[in-house]
Amino acid sequence: MADVFVSRSLEEIRFWSRIMKEHSFFIRLGFRCEDTQLINEANYFYRTFETIEQRALSFSEETDPATIGAFNQEVHTAVSHIWVFKRKVLGLILTCQLPGGTNFPLLVDHISREAKYFRNRLEELNQGKLEPLPDAIIDENVFFLRIMADHAKFIGHLLDPSERKLVEQARDFSHDFDDLLYQARDLDSMRPQSQTAPLLTQFLDQNKVSVKSLKDFKKTARDLIEQCKIKSIIHPLLADHVFREAERFLEIIEMFERSLTGTASRTPIIHH
Protein backbone atom coordinates (compact mmCIF):
# COMPACT_ATOMS: atom_id res chain seq x y z
CA MET A 1 0.00 0.00 0.00
CA ALA A 2 1.34 3.44 -0.94
CA ASP A 3 2.59 5.53 1.98
CA VAL A 4 0.32 8.55 2.70
CA PHE A 5 3.31 10.68 3.66
CA VAL A 6 5.02 9.88 0.34
CA SER A 7 1.97 10.52 -1.83
CA ARG A 8 1.07 13.80 -0.12
CA SER A 9 4.66 15.03 -0.20
CA LEU A 10 5.06 14.32 -3.90
CA GLU A 11 1.71 15.90 -4.71
CA GLU A 12 2.60 19.12 -2.88
CA ILE A 13 6.11 19.34 -4.33
CA ARG A 14 5.01 18.61 -7.90
CA PHE A 15 2.45 21.40 -7.77
CA TRP A 16 4.38 24.05 -5.83
CA SER A 17 7.84 23.50 -7.36
CA ARG A 18 6.32 24.34 -10.76
CA ILE A 19 4.74 27.44 -9.21
CA MET A 20 8.10 28.51 -7.72
CA LYS A 21 9.83 27.91 -11.07
CA GLU A 22 7.28 30.11 -12.83
CA HIS A 23 7.59 32.82 -10.17
CA SER A 24 11.30 33.00 -11.02
CA PHE A 25 10.41 33.52 -14.67
CA PHE A 26 7.74 36.17 -14.00
CA ILE A 27 9.88 38.19 -11.58
CA ARG A 28 12.77 38.11 -14.07
CA LEU A 29 10.50 39.57 -16.78
CA GLY A 30 9.86 42.57 -14.51
CA PHE A 31 13.52 43.49 -14.00
CA ARG A 32 15.27 46.16 -16.04
CA CYS A 33 17.93 45.00 -18.51
CA GLU A 34 20.68 46.49 -16.29
CA ASP A 35 19.59 44.42 -13.26
CA THR A 36 21.94 41.62 -14.28
CA GLN A 37 22.62 40.33 -10.76
CA LEU A 38 18.91 40.01 -9.99
CA ILE A 39 18.27 38.41 -13.39
CA ASN A 40 21.03 35.87 -12.71
CA GLU A 41 19.54 35.08 -9.29
CA ALA A 42 16.08 34.60 -10.83
CA ASN A 43 17.57 32.29 -13.47
CA TYR A 44 19.31 30.31 -10.72
CA PHE A 45 16.03 29.75 -8.90
CA TYR A 46 14.30 28.82 -12.17
CA ARG A 47 16.88 26.07 -12.75
CA THR A 48 16.74 24.99 -9.10
CA PHE A 49 12.99 24.46 -9.08
CA GLU A 50 12.96 22.95 -12.55
CA THR A 51 15.37 20.30 -11.22
CA ILE A 52 13.22 19.79 -8.09
CA GLU A 53 10.11 19.41 -10.26
CA GLN A 54 11.82 16.80 -12.45
CA ARG A 55 13.10 14.88 -9.42
CA ALA A 56 9.64 14.89 -7.84
CA LEU A 57 8.23 13.41 -11.05
CA SER A 58 10.92 10.69 -11.03
CA PHE A 59 9.78 9.37 -7.62
CA SER A 60 6.74 7.13 -7.18
CA GLU A 61 4.33 6.48 -4.31
CA GLU A 62 6.37 3.34 -3.60
CA THR A 63 9.53 5.36 -2.88
CA ASP A 64 11.01 4.83 0.58
CA PRO A 65 9.54 7.43 3.01
CA ALA A 66 13.02 8.17 4.37
CA THR A 67 14.14 9.19 0.88
CA ILE A 68 11.14 11.49 0.51
CA GLY A 69 11.73 12.95 3.99
CA ALA A 70 15.28 13.89 2.96
CA PHE A 71 13.98 15.29 -0.35
CA ASN A 72 11.39 17.39 1.51
CA GLN A 73 14.17 18.88 3.62
CA GLU A 74 16.20 19.74 0.51
CA VAL A 75 13.18 21.40 -1.07
CA HIS A 76 12.46 23.25 2.19
CA THR A 77 15.96 24.79 2.02
CA ALA A 78 15.45 25.88 -1.61
CA VAL A 79 12.05 27.39 -0.79
CA SER A 80 13.55 29.28 2.17
CA HIS A 81 16.18 30.75 -0.16
CA ILE A 82 13.71 31.88 -2.82
CA TRP A 83 11.57 33.44 -0.08
CA VAL A 84 14.60 35.51 1.03
CA PHE A 85 15.23 36.53 -2.59
CA LYS A 86 11.63 37.64 -3.09
CA ARG A 87 11.64 39.69 0.12
CA LYS A 88 14.94 41.30 -0.92
CA VAL A 89 13.40 42.31 -4.26
CA LEU A 90 10.34 43.68 -2.47
CA GLY A 91 12.61 45.81 -0.28
CA LEU A 92 14.44 47.18 -3.32
CA ILE A 93 11.17 48.13 -5.00
CA LEU A 94 9.68 49.76 -1.91
CA THR A 95 12.83 51.85 -1.35
CA CYS A 96 12.73 53.02 -5.00
CA GLN A 97 15.98 51.26 -5.96
CA LEU A 98 14.47 49.64 -9.07
CA PRO A 99 12.80 52.60 -10.87
CA GLY A 100 11.33 51.57 -14.19
CA GLY A 101 10.93 47.89 -13.28
CA THR A 102 7.52 46.34 -13.87
CA ASN A 103 7.12 44.07 -10.84
CA PHE A 104 4.23 45.32 -8.69
CA PRO A 105 5.17 45.34 -4.98
CA LEU A 106 1.94 43.44 -4.23
CA LEU A 107 2.93 40.80 -6.81
CA VAL A 108 6.30 40.25 -5.15
CA ASP A 109 4.67 40.09 -1.72
CA HIS A 110 2.07 37.68 -3.15
CA ILE A 111 4.66 35.24 -4.51
CA SER A 112 6.65 35.40 -1.27
CA ARG A 113 3.48 34.47 0.68
CA GLU A 114 3.11 31.44 -1.57
CA ALA A 115 6.71 30.43 -0.88
CA LYS A 116 6.08 30.71 2.86
CA TYR A 117 2.92 28.59 2.50
CA PHE A 118 4.87 25.89 0.60
CA ARG A 119 7.62 25.91 3.21
CA ASN A 120 5.05 25.47 6.01
CA ARG A 121 3.42 22.55 4.18
CA LEU A 122 6.81 20.79 3.93
CA GLU A 123 7.37 21.32 7.66
CA GLU A 124 3.94 19.87 8.46
CA LEU A 125 4.62 16.83 6.30
CA ASN A 126 8.05 16.13 7.76
CA GLN A 127 6.77 16.53 11.31
CA GLY A 128 4.08 13.96 10.50
CA LYS A 129 1.08 16.01 11.52
CA LEU A 130 -1.67 18.17 10.09
CA GLU A 131 -3.83 20.87 11.65
CA PRO A 132 -7.20 19.74 13.04
CA LEU A 133 -9.82 19.95 10.28
CA PRO A 134 -11.72 23.03 11.62
CA ASP A 135 -8.48 25.03 11.89
CA ALA A 136 -7.27 23.89 8.47
CA ILE A 137 -10.55 24.93 6.82
CA ILE A 138 -10.29 28.50 8.12
CA ASP A 139 -6.52 28.89 7.62
CA GLU A 140 -6.47 27.52 4.07
CA ASN A 141 -9.40 29.69 3.04
CA VAL A 142 -7.91 32.85 4.56
CA PHE A 143 -4.71 32.16 2.61
CA PHE A 144 -6.29 31.27 -0.73
CA LEU A 145 -9.03 33.92 -0.66
CA ARG A 146 -6.35 36.58 -0.43
CA ILE A 147 -4.43 34.92 -3.28
CA MET A 148 -7.59 34.94 -5.44
CA ALA A 149 -8.30 38.60 -4.59
CA ASP A 150 -4.74 39.49 -5.59
CA HIS A 151 -5.08 37.62 -8.90
CA ALA A 152 -8.19 39.62 -9.79
CA LYS A 153 -6.32 42.86 -9.08
CA PHE A 154 -3.30 41.81 -11.18
CA ILE A 155 -5.50 40.80 -14.11
CA GLY A 156 -7.35 44.13 -13.95
CA HIS A 157 -4.08 46.09 -13.98
CA LEU A 158 -2.38 44.07 -16.74
CA LEU A 159 -5.28 44.10 -19.19
CA ASP A 160 -5.20 46.99 -21.64
CA PRO A 161 -7.41 49.82 -20.31
CA SER A 162 -9.42 49.63 -23.55
CA GLU A 163 -10.64 46.15 -22.54
CA ARG A 164 -13.24 47.90 -20.41
CA LYS A 165 -15.63 44.98 -19.91
CA LEU A 166 -12.92 42.55 -18.80
CA VAL A 167 -11.31 45.18 -16.55
CA GLU A 168 -14.71 45.75 -14.93
CA GLN A 169 -15.19 41.98 -14.43
CA ALA A 170 -11.75 41.70 -12.81
CA ARG A 171 -12.61 44.61 -10.50
CA ASP A 172 -15.87 42.91 -9.51
CA PHE A 173 -14.01 39.70 -8.66
CA SER A 174 -11.50 41.72 -6.62
CA HIS A 175 -14.33 43.23 -4.54
CA ASP A 176 -16.06 39.85 -4.18
CA PHE A 177 -12.94 38.12 -2.87
CA ASP A 178 -12.03 41.02 -0.61
CA ASP A 179 -15.46 40.63 1.01
CA LEU A 180 -15.04 36.84 1.31
CA LEU A 181 -11.61 37.38 2.87
CA TYR A 182 -13.05 39.79 5.46
CA GLN A 183 -15.73 37.21 6.29
CA ALA A 184 -13.08 34.50 6.65
CA ARG A 185 -11.03 36.70 8.97
CA ASP A 186 -14.15 37.35 11.06
CA LEU A 187 -14.73 33.60 11.33
CA ASP A 188 -11.05 33.24 12.24
CA SER A 189 -11.26 35.77 15.08
CA MET A 190 -14.38 34.02 16.44
CA ARG A 191 -12.50 30.73 16.88
CA PRO A 192 -13.11 28.23 18.42
CA GLN A 193 -16.79 29.10 18.90
CA SER A 194 -17.22 29.65 15.15
CA GLN A 195 -16.00 26.17 14.23
CA THR A 196 -19.35 24.41 14.05
CA ALA A 197 -20.17 22.07 11.17
CA PRO A 198 -23.11 24.22 9.90
CA LEU A 199 -21.04 27.42 9.85
CA LEU A 200 -18.03 25.76 8.21
CA THR A 201 -20.25 24.05 5.64
CA GLN A 202 -21.89 27.34 4.68
CA PHE A 203 -18.46 29.02 4.60
CA LEU A 204 -17.14 26.45 2.13
CA ASP A 205 -20.31 26.52 0.01
CA GLN A 206 -20.16 30.28 -0.38
CA ASN A 207 -16.45 30.33 -1.23
CA LYS A 208 -16.82 27.45 -3.67
CA VAL A 209 -19.40 29.34 -5.77
CA SER A 210 -17.11 32.36 -6.10
CA VAL A 211 -13.97 30.31 -6.80
CA LYS A 212 -15.78 28.42 -9.57
CA SER A 213 -16.84 31.70 -11.16
CA LEU A 214 -13.32 33.13 -10.91
CA LYS A 215 -11.83 29.93 -12.32
CA ASP A 216 -14.15 30.15 -15.34
CA PHE A 217 -13.21 33.82 -15.84
CA LYS A 218 -9.51 32.96 -15.68
CA LYS A 219 -9.98 30.11 -18.14
CA THR A 220 -11.75 32.41 -20.60
CA ALA A 221 -9.04 35.08 -20.17
CA ARG A 222 -6.29 32.47 -20.60
CA ASP A 223 -7.86 31.13 -23.81
CA LEU A 224 -8.40 34.62 -25.23
CA ILE A 225 -4.80 35.61 -24.42
CA GLU A 226 -3.41 32.44 -26.00
CA GLN A 227 -5.47 33.12 -29.14
CA CYS A 228 -4.38 36.80 -29.17
CA LYS A 229 -8.03 37.90 -29.04
CA ILE A 230 -7.67 40.52 -26.30
CA LYS A 231 -5.27 43.35 -25.63
CA SER A 232 -3.08 42.95 -22.53
CA ILE A 233 0.48 42.65 -21.30
CA ILE A 234 -0.31 39.34 -19.56
CA HIS A 235 2.10 36.56 -20.48
CA PRO A 236 0.17 33.43 -21.57
CA LEU A 237 2.01 31.40 -18.93
CA LEU A 238 0.87 33.82 -16.21
CA ALA A 239 -2.73 33.42 -17.37
CA ASP A 240 -2.41 29.64 -17.08
CA HIS A 241 -0.55 29.94 -13.76
CA VAL A 242 -3.37 31.83 -12.01
CA PHE A 243 -5.94 29.45 -13.52
CA ARG A 244 -4.11 26.45 -12.02
CA GLU A 245 -4.04 28.09 -8.59
CA ALA A 246 -7.82 28.63 -8.71
CA GLU A 247 -8.19 24.97 -9.67
CA ARG A 248 -6.02 24.04 -6.71
CA PHE A 249 -8.15 26.08 -4.28
CA LEU A 250 -11.31 24.45 -5.62
CA GLU A 251 -9.81 20.98 -5.07
CA ILE A 252 -8.93 21.93 -1.47
CA ILE A 253 -12.47 23.19 -0.79
CA GLU A 254 -13.92 19.95 -2.19
CA MET A 255 -11.54 17.90 -0.03
CA PHE A 256 -12.71 19.82 3.04
CA GLU A 257 -16.34 19.24 2.09
CA ARG A 258 -15.73 15.50 1.88
CA SER A 259 -13.94 15.57 5.23
CA LEU A 260 -16.81 17.44 6.92
CA THR A 261 -19.36 14.92 5.65
CA GLY A 262 -17.19 12.00 6.76
CA THR A 263 -16.34 10.69 3.30
CA ALA A 264 -12.67 11.52 3.68
CA SER A 265 -10.28 11.66 6.62
CA ARG A 266 -7.71 14.24 7.62
CA THR A 267 -5.63 12.13 9.94
CA PRO A 268 -2.05 12.84 11.03
CA ILE A 269 0.63 11.66 8.62
CA ILE A 270 2.78 9.15 10.45
CA HIS A 271 6.00 8.02 8.77
CA HIS A 272 9.15 6.31 9.89
TrEMBL record:
The record's listing under SUPFAM superfamilies reads:
Bacillus cereus metalloprotein-like
What is the protein name for this chain?
DUF2935 domain-containing protein
Please name the source species: Paenibacillus lutrae
